[in-house]
Description:
The chain has 268 residues and is α/β, with parallel strands linked by helices. Helices cover 41% and strands 17% of the residues. The strands form two sheets. The chain has a six-stranded parallel beta sheet with strand order 4-3-1-2-9-10, with helices on both faces. Strands 6-5-7-8 form a four-stranded parallel beta sheet, with helices on both faces. Strand 3, helix 3 (79-92) and strand 4 form a beta-alpha-beta unit. It starts with 9 loop residues before the first strand and ends with a strand.
Amino acid sequence: MQPPAPDAPILFFDSGLGGLTVLGPTRALLPRAPVVYAADYAGLPYGEKSEAELAARVPALLGRLVERYQPRIVVIACNTASTIALAHVRAALDVPIVGTVPAIKPAALLTQSGVIGVLGTVATVRQPYVDDLSARFAADKTVLRHGSPGLVTAAEAKLRGEPVDPAVIARAISGLRDQPRGGALDVIVLACTHFPLLADELQAAAGPDVRFIDGADGIARRIAHLTEGQDWPAEAPSGLGVFTASPERPPPPLTALLPFGIDRIETI
């Protein structure tokens, strides 16, 4: 296989802005990497869509994006899309694909109480993939799950500079705490890439005795490993943000993307 050209980008894909939490640590490891960040605003929120709809939508949209931007690697920086459509995407595209899965394995190693919370979208927490991760890595633990679509909306609002509704945060934490053994919870897996954008608010609501964990750093290391030895531009190029057109949801202000090295926006 021909090595990628130095200007071949890493393509990050999410339903919205949550994948920025994966882009951030990747940029820290690969500062000269060209980046295209694609958000499916026309399909947001993914967590409320059916498995069949996402299994068809995500590979089709990624096929268009790969054809258009010719990336060296595709990062599905979305737990919901990964747990439902990752196999479909890998079957459809001839490019390396990195997915995002709930960090249940490291959470099982961290917990002292033996009770772990998995906070994700409604679609993610009901997936057999989560059953499998729990059985393989946390069989001797109690794994509580809660789907919180309101956190996705709150995270998007926060990046636009809007206030976060404390009631949304409180409901997300109580959705785990109120389950049997929820009072012993000491580690929460943020199983949606949007949710680390609300880390401060979630920590305040959960209290200092609860640790939060997500998979972003591990994904960044995986991307660095898969692109090891490849050529990069001499200087970091400007990043591109791509948004599917939505009449209800215009692209975010550029100021929300600039801290992540994105200074141009396209709508498709």
